[in-house]
Design a protein that fits this description.
By secondary structure, the chain is α+β, with helices and mostly antiparallel strands. It has helices spanning 4-7, 23-34, 65-73, 106-115, 136-146; strands spanning 10-18, 38-45, 51-59, 78-83, 89-100, 119-123, 127-134, 151-156, 160-163. It has two domains: 4-83, ACT domain (Alpha-Beta Plaits); 90-163, ACT-like. Chain A, domain 2 (Alpha-Beta Plaits). Strands 5, 6, 7, 8 and 9 form a five-stranded antiparallel sheet that branches. Strands 2-3-1-4 form a four-stranded antiparallel sheet, covered by helices on one side. A hairpin with a 3-residue loop joins strand 6 (119-123) and strand 7.
């Protein structure tokens, strides 16, 4: 059972807004009024607590990018909007998943968690809660592999994303030998 959302075309928008009461509801309301489908929404303060960054993943079929950005720019608290192409962005999500874990299956689930660099956060008599962070397709894969054990509960944070850093080679300056 693959996560269908990851397979659909989408826009990733990084929106810098003023960190003020009501901004999130205004942005969400704008999307709702226009009938745009939000696939994922994550928001938190930036390094400067006067501002928040919203990472909004929008179903590309439901919303033309130009129309979205025009509507967002009309909102006063919006300072900057950038589309992050998936190839030019670092995308991450966090997933907590509680899975059935009989004594016979526990070692298999623990091994699977280790392969995905996940962490077991809680242990019960017949279940484990696992935390895994990574690219959305990594979380989809782990969820698919845990499905046969029996997923009891699952929660994902939604995507966060930042542009990838440029990797320009450092310029070397010529150093002259000076005679002493």
């Amino acid at each position: 059972m693959s996560n269908v959302v990851s397979d659909r075309p989408h826009h990733i928008l990084s929106v810098l807004v003023e960190n003020k009461f009501g901004v999130l509801s205004r942005v969400a309301g704008l999307f709702a009024r226009r009938g745009f489908n939000i696939v994922s929404l994550a928001v938190s303060p930036t390094e400067d607590d006067r501002f928040s960054r919203m990472t909004i993943v929008v179903d590309a079929d439901s919303a033309p990018l130009e129309q979205i950005t025009k509507q967002l720019n009309k909102l006063i608290p919006v300072l900057k909007i950038a589309e992050l192409h998936p190839d030019a962005a670092v995308e991450r999500e966090l997933m907590l998943v509680t899975v059935k874990a009989s004594p016979e299956a526990r070692s298999q689930i623990t091994e699977l968690a280790a392969i995905f660099e996940a962490k077991i956060d809680d242990v019960g008599h017949d279940a484990l809660t696992i935390q895994v962070a990574g690219a959305p397709n990594k979380l989809d894969a782990m969820s698919d592999l845990l499905q046969p054990f029996g997923i009891l509960e699952q929660q994902r944070t939604g995507r966060i994303a930042l542009p990838k850093l440029t990797r320009r080679p450092a310029k070397l300056r010529a150093v002259r030998n000076r005679a002493v």
